[in-house]
Amino acid sequence: MNLQQFRAILDLGSDAEGRTMLPAAEPAGQRIFGGQILAQLIAAAESGRTVKSLQVAFPRSGRPRQPLYLDLEKTHDGRSLGMRQVVAYQDQPLGGRRIVAVGSIVLDRADGEYDYQFDAAATSDPLTAKPIDFAVVPGESRLISDIGLDDVSAASAELSFWMRCPDFTDPTLARPVLAYVSDWPVIGTLLKAVPGLSQEDAHVRLQTGVVSHSMWFHRQFDLSGWLRVEVRGQRLAGGRGFGTGAVYTQAGSLVASFAQESVIRSFR
Questions:
Q1: What is the mean pLDDT of residues 50-58?
Q2: 246: part of which helix (H) or strand (E)?
Q3: What are phi and psi of 51, to 5 degrees?
Q4: What is the C-alpha separation between 166 and 109, in angstroms, rounded?
Q5: pLDDT recorded at residue 133
Q6: Helix axes 34-45, 174-182, angle to 10 degrees
Q7: How would you class 158 by CB atoms within 10 Å of its CB: exposed for 0-12, middle for 13-18, buried for 19 or more?
Q8: How far is Cα 76 from Cα 72, in angstroms, rounded to an integer?
Q9: CA–CA distance from 39 to each of 57, 105, 124, 175, 240 (Å)?
């Protein structure tokens, strides 16, 4: 996805009834990518403040060929913090709403106060890492881990990679883009630990889907510079997966964290 295409999915429109519409990134796809909705919710919520965190649940998958609508409620606006409640939905054939995503968003005005970080990512040269084509990254990506997401041999459920988007110099795009990317790698990372399976088996041999996704932004960052993404598949049990992620600058400053619950099970 290039800069123009990404901007297009953030270009929210309205229908004849005045309802806010969320454009589909891939109208011909089987389902709407959850990362697209995360990016759109951030773009819709930011107005004079930046998104500090968001927690979104996905009760059902979205249908790309059907209009997707957004309800956004301004729950609270204080001197520094604000709160938004969001619902993304599609119309039901016989009336009513088919809920695709529900969530809460915290907005913030950053203070110039204390700056502490428990640990820093190991610093290294991104250009020494292996170039790899991660379709969800709208820019350049390089694999740090020895094994990627398409290998079916059992390996540790971890993934580390560099990413940068040289064309994305607009700072308002930084949080939407990172949220878009963060929704993708957790399920594939968990599947690295399962012998004979990989992310290629999602929706083919396995039923997979995101149940909920949370993200926290700790400080401003530049997408045109290298970001190191560390993903850990923490637990896979009972048909459910849980994983976490952390995003660092090349200098090792933690700029964002995320966590995801998912469905991962064989087709019944």
A1: 97
A2: strand 240-249
A3: -70, 125
A4: 26
A5: 95
A6: 160
A7: middle
A8: 12
A9: 14, 12, 29, 7, 24
Give the E-state strand segments of 15-129 in sequence order.
20-22, 50-57, 68-77, 81-91, 97-108
Whole-angstrom distance, CA of residue 108 vs CA of residue 83: 9
Tokens of 104: 């809460």
> Model confidence over 209-254: pLDDT tens digits?
999 999 999 999 999 999 999 999 999 999 999 999 999 999 999 9
Q: Could you read off the pLDDT of 81-132 as tens digits, one per residue?
A: 999 999 999 999 888 999 999 999 999 987 878 999 998 777 889 999 999 9
The predicted pLDDT at position 26 comes to: 85
Taking phi first (over 0 means left), then psi (-120 to 50 degrees means alpha), and beta for anything else, what does residue 111 get? beta
DSSP string, 46-77: -SSSEEEEEEEE-SS---TTS-EEEEEEEEEE
Q: For residue 218, which of 174, 180, 163 has the smallest C-alpha distance?
A: 174
Alpha-carbon distance of 177 to 7, in angstroms, equals 10
Among 225, 163, 214, which residue's Cα sits nearest to residue 186? Answer: 214
What's the whole-number mean pLDDT along residues 41-60? 95
Residue 219 phi, psi (nearest 5): -160, 170
Task: Report phi then psi at 152, rounded to 5.
Answer: -95, 0
Joined together, the tokens standing for residue 175 give 């949080």
**Which pLDDT score is estimated for 30?**
87
Spell out the domains of the chain, with CATH numbers in brackets: 1-110 (3.10.129.10), 124-268 (3.10.129.10)
267 band by pLDDT with thresholds 50, 70 and 90: confident
Mean pLDDT within 150-158:
92
